[in-house]
Amino acid sequence: MDTAAAFFRARCSGPPPLRDATASVVRQGDGMSAALHFWFVPVCPFAWMTSKWVRMVADQRAYDVEWRLISLRLLNKHIDYDNHFPPEYEAGHTAGLRLLRVCARVRAEHGAQALGPLYLALGDRIWEQDPVEGQDVAGRVPGLVRDALQEAALPAELADALEDTSWDEEIQAETDAALALTGKDVGTPILHFQPPEGIAFFGPVISRLPDEAQAAQLWDHVVGLASFGGFAELKRSLRELPQLPALGVPTETVGKTEDWHGGSRRQKK
Questions:
Q1: Residue 160 lies in a domain
Q2: CATH code (residue 60)
Q3: What are the two backbone dihedrals, phi and then psi, of residue 192, each rounded to the nearest 5 degrees?
Q4: Cα three-residue angle 73-75-81, rounded to 5 degrees
Q5: What string of DSSP letters covers 120-179?
Q6: 215: which DSSP letter?
Q7: How far apart (Å, rounded) are the C-alpha atoms in residues 39 and 97?
Q8: Which domain holds residue 240?
Q9: Which stretches within the chain are classed as H helix?
Q10: CA distance 140 to 32
């Protein structure tokens, strides 16, 4: 397996014990004007694919998105990675946490509106570039952050947050807040429609990017489900490898289908 495909597998779900998940997140924007809250981690290809779709519809429908942070590494902190996950998972999830620390500092110093451009710049460098043999995302994090900050017109010194664990408490609280809306058995992305009263879901998980007409149609269907108060789950564990250059899957082909039991690539159930 090449390094890009291995890193793709470093995404999972898992239930951490919730701690005061309804508490306000430190330095969080109020989000009251946003039509959608989107919890992301830059190293998840499914979150990236869904974010591309959400941006397409946001442009068409002129609604606001507030980007929020969720850490797969903190979500799975109680799990023995060596015994439960493939070997690349821990490095991938740790890289995601390091990137989220930078995101948290960016938001604190430049406002919530700075997260969207930064996530776009990070995701483009992680997922929209052809894979390089022998290089995985975990090993490229400092360079990715440097270039993404420059593209987003943000100060280079924000990259110092990569190793600053003081941001982890805020990221943990934000992760807990997302799980308080959905329940524990979820992964990324998490979408909260019409907050604060609206419903939140894990997903939709998509492996192909729709065209503009399909994007709006898919959005209407998803919002329709989210608008019904009794709706809880519509699930399929078979997933295609997403159509992303970093994973070696061009848009004109269909990625390999795998069974993500329990919504993850865990080796043990």
A1: yes
A2: 3.40.30.10
A3: -115, 110
A4: 55
A5: HHHHHHHHSS---TT--HHHHHHHHHHHHHHHTT--GGGGGGGG-GGGHHHHHHHHHHHH
A6: H
A7: 13
A8: 3-9+33-263
A9: 3-8, 45-61, 72-75, 81-84, 88-110, 115-127, 137-151, 168-182, 212-227
A10: 36
Number of domains in the chain: 1
In tens, the pLDDT along 200-234 reads: 999 999 999 999 999 999 999 999 988 888 888 88
Phi/psi at 226 (5° precision): -65, -25
Overall average pLDDT of the 127-139 stretch = 81
Amino acid type, 103: C
In a domain, 168, yes or no: yes
For residue 149, what pLDDT band results from cuts at 50, 70 and 90? very high
Tokens of 27: 């330095």
How far CA 193 is from CA of 137, 160, 217, 220, in Å, comes to 31, 33, 16, 12
In a domain? residue 26: no
Long-range contacts of 228-236 (CB under 8 A, 24+ apart): 229/199, 231/199
The residue type found at 218 is L
Q: What is the CA angle 108-175-39, rounded to 5?
A: 75
At residue 93, the 3 state secondary structure works out as: helix
Nearest residue to 126 (alpha-carbon basis) of 246, 231, 34: 246
Residues 186/121, Cβ–Cβ less than 8 Å: no
Which residue type, as a one-letter code, is found at position 236? R
User: Is-contact 71 226, C-beta < 8 A?
Assistant: no
Domain for residue 14, yes or no? no
Cβ neighbours of residue 268 closer than 8 Å, sequence gap 6 or more: 83, 84
Helix (H) or strand (E) holding 37: strand 36-40
